[in-house]
Amino acid sequence: MPAPPAASGVRRLQKELRDITLDPPPYCNAAPSSESIFTWYFTLDGLPQTPYEGGRYVGELRFPPEYPMKAPKIIMLTPSGRFVINSPICLTITDFHPEEWSPMWGVRTIITGLLSFMVSEESGLGGMTATAESRRALAAESHRYNVERVPVYKELFNSEYQKDLKKLNEEAEALRKNCGDVSENLGNKTTNASRAQLRGIVASIVVLVALAVGLLVLRN
């Protein structure tokens, strides 16, 4: 008797988890939610020599109980300038195109395909356009965004989270130090300026006194 669809999907996803854990695809990572193996989260690292370089983008895969016979939904959680966040993305590897879905495809196929699609300019539901400058700015901000606004990043990708958190703390400390140095320099400059101003006032008083004495001498 064939296994129910959900049981078949669980076994398939468990196998994919083992495969990805042993051999993660380049620039990608993925793991199931602690609440359900039918909900996965993944990260995409921006490819070199693209506006996304240096960025890290978190997304979500929602698998139906009939997986792998039916396709999942893909939703991005980190702004990139390429995809609308918190909105399903229309691709041939998603449930928008069930007629094109293949049960041979899996988590690895989906996230590597999405990474390739990301650097293209193909349009579609869930996609968006933006300037290269905007995408670079979002890439630079993506790590902070994930740490502060994507809770699952800490839960499932804690190693990356800790590295990003450490870097952000170091940057904040460096900024505080620089601000302190600037304040100290300004204070020194203000003190020096005040001393110079005081010396000028004293010199002016001395000149005025000398003039007054000179006038008195002339009158006498």
UniProtKB/TrEMBL annotation:
Assigned keywords, A-Z: Coiled coil, Ligase, Membrane, Transmembrane, Transmembrane helix
Top EC class of this enzyme: ligase
GO molecular function, one term: ligase activity
EC number(s) from the headed UniProt entry: 6.3.2.19
Lineage: Eukaryota, Discoba, Euglenozoa, Kinetoplastea, Metakinetoplastina
TM ranges: 198-218
Claim: Transmembrane helix is one of the keywords in the record: yes
Boundaries of every UBC core domain copy: 8-170
Protein's name according to its UniProt entry: Ubiquitin-conjugating enzyme e2, putative
Coiled coil (residue ranges): 158-185
Keyword Coiled coil: yes
Matches recorded under InterPro entries: Ub_conjugating_enzyme, UBC, UBQ-conjugating_enzyme/RWD
Gene3D superfamilies cross-referenced by the UniProt entry: Ubiquitin Conjugating Enzyme
Pfam families xref list: UQ_con (PF00179)
